[in-house]
Amino acid sequence: MAPVLLQLAVLGVALAAAALILISFVAFITATEMPHLQRHEEEKFFLNARGQREALPSIQDSPTKQLSVVVPSYNEEKRLPVMMDEALGYLEDRQKYGSDKVRVITLVKNRGKGGAIRMGVFSSRGKKILMADADGATKFPDIEKLEKGLNDLQPWPDQMAIACGSRAHLEKESIAQRSYFRTLLMYGFHFLVWFLCVKGIRDTQCGFKLLTREAASRTFSSLHIERWAFDVELLYIAQFFKIPIAEIAVNWTEIEGSKLVPFWSWLQMGKDLLFIRLRYLTGAWRLEQTRKVN
User: What domain of life (predicted)?
Assistant: First the structure.
């Protein structure tokens, strides 16, 4: 009996190794080079308050504002107005952010959440850049917590630092409200993030993140993933470049209307996590210390 079990164990290990080699090969040959930020002609401009077309700036320009807020939006006509009213009301009370409020960048094609945020980041004017979701799940005054977390990381190497909003402190409450299946998916995803890509950050997916301009330029110029798992690659890149990261607890409320389909979206993100790791390991994707945005 023992020899049979030994043979089965050896066969299992061999099959697992063959599967890993096959997946690595697929990940390598399907990898694309660094996606270029190619704008369609219509994406190079925005309409100003007078209804005239005005050229968008570049993140390589000197900042002209203290803060830029990037909000990706796709079919968000119900949730976005509520979020924008709260955000603008808060920011207008902080007069140092000025009154040049909103610029809308209309994308010709759907680039995914990560691709849309990158377009916004590369057109930003602020010394600091905040990513915020259109659903308004995190209340805007919590930016003060991120600012404090960012300041606590000083001195910033090469002026780079990131503060990530986190819902990890709400995990027990969320588990009580979720089904066992969704809880299992959540734990599985967290394990894959930790095992394959990002160590030390409990919540990589909160959409409330504050970056210095230099950190945003360095990380987003190296980003490949453009859909839901882009946050994980963003933080993977940040840890590679040794950019200091603070994880800050924020208030968060579940808002109806999420476009994530629990099983299929998590499956897609799991595949993206595996491919992120394999593509960097095999050299299909490379990170360069001196990469600049073109």
Answer: Eukaryota
Contact status, residue 211 vs residue 129, Cβ threshold 8 Å: yes
The neighbour count for residue 242, using CB atoms within 10 Å, is: 10
Neighbours of 16 (CB within 10 A): 10
pLDDT of res. 7? 56
pLDDT tens-digit series, residues 194-225: 999 999 999 998 999 999 999 999 999 999 99
d(CA 80, CA 92): 18
Q: How far apart are CA 206 and CA 249, in angstroms?
A: 10
Residue 196, helix vs strand vs coil = helix
pTM: 0.84
Task: Report in angstroms the alpha-carbon separations of 231 from 12, 18, 113, 276.
Answer: 34, 30, 10, 12
CB-based contact 265:228 (threshold 8 Å)? yes
Q: What is the pLDDT of residue 71?
A: 95
CA nearest 88: which of 76, 71, 113?
71
Query: What is residue 56's predicted lDDT score, i.e. its pLDDT?
Result: 93
Tens of pLDDT, residue by residue over 115-149, are 999 999 999 999 999 999 999 889 899 999 999 99
- Residue 30: pLDDT band by 50, 70, 90 thresholds? low
Helices (H) and strands (E) in the chain, counts: 9, 7
Q: Considering only the C-alpha atoms of the chain, give the largest distance between any 2 of them, rounded to a whole number of Å.
A: 83
84-107 confidence digits (pLDDT tens): 999 988 888 876 554 467 899 999
Q: Which of 17, 12, 22, 16 is nearest to 282 (CA)?
A: 22
**Quick check: 229 and 206 in contact, CB under 8 A?**
no
Quick count: other Cβ atoms within 10 Å of Cβ 156?
16
Q: E strands of the chain, at which residues?
A: 45-47, 53-55, 65-70, 126-131, 162-166, 209-212, 245-249
